[in-house]
Amino acid sequence: TDNNVNLIAGGYQFLNGTSTSVTILKDIVGYGKITTDGIGQFNDYIDLNTVGNRGKIGYDSNNVYIGSTASAGQIIFKNGITSTDAPQTSGTELMRIDSSGAIGIGTNNPGYKLQVNGSVDILNLKGSTGNAIIRFTDSDATADFSIGSDDGSGAGAGAFILYDRSNSAYRLAVNSSGKVGIGTTNPSAPL
């Protein structure tokens, strides 16, 4: 026993209380070490040993960190893991971050920095106030464009726009009536 962490066969118990009255808060089964500050508070990380390479969960005053000591390690999020099986062999994968930092949702092998696979309505972007915009900027910011839905500040409420941020100009607008304007935000004809 190390203050409020108790070593048990094959894992650890998180405890609450004193040496005469203890409540088990959580059993953790597995291999690894948990560092404490000497009074039962966790101060750095939990080291999850998996024969050679390890997963780590840690924190500081403002952040939580999850990672692997292996350079080729991945972080995999699952649900539906059965109570008797290890997460490596059970459950449904929801998302993964591969060793290059690519994120895959609906795929376990993302080919891009963000790859989302699914069926019908794969992605919904909704502005909490104002426009709902996706912004595209090249590496030196000489090309800077936005596409999305306009809240009425430029092309009218309900319009879909292509906006050139480098030159502060609407390049394309499809208004709520379906009229398309190229170089204008107020089209009066279908095109």
Briefly say what this structure is:
The chain has strands at residues 5-8, 11-17, 22-29, 32-36, 42-50, 53-59, 64-68, 75-79, 92-97, 103-105, 114-116, 132-137, 144-151, 157-164, 169-174, 180-182. With 191 residues, it is an all-beta fold.
Indicate the percent of residues in helices. under 10%
- Terminal CA distance: 76 Å
Strand content: over 45%
Residue-averaged pLDDT, rounded?
A: 75
Order of SSEs, N→C?
EEEEEEEEEEEEEEEE
The number of distinct helices, counting runs of at least 4 residues, comes to 0
Give the overall shape, derived from the CA principal axes. elongated
The structural class is mainly beta
Sequence of strands across the biggest β-sheet: 12-13-14-15-16
DSSP E strands, number? 16
Low-confidence stretches: 6-10, 20-43
- Radius of gyration, taken over Cα atoms and rounded to an integer in Å: 26 Å
Q: Give a quick account of the main beta sheet: strands, pairing sense, barrel closure.
A: 5 strands, antiparallel
How would you describe this structure to a colleague?
The chain is mainly beta and 191 residues long. Helices cover 0% and strands 49% of the residues. The chain is built from no helices and 16 strands. A hairpin with a 2-residue loop joins strand 5 and strand 6. The N and C termini lie far apart (76 Å).
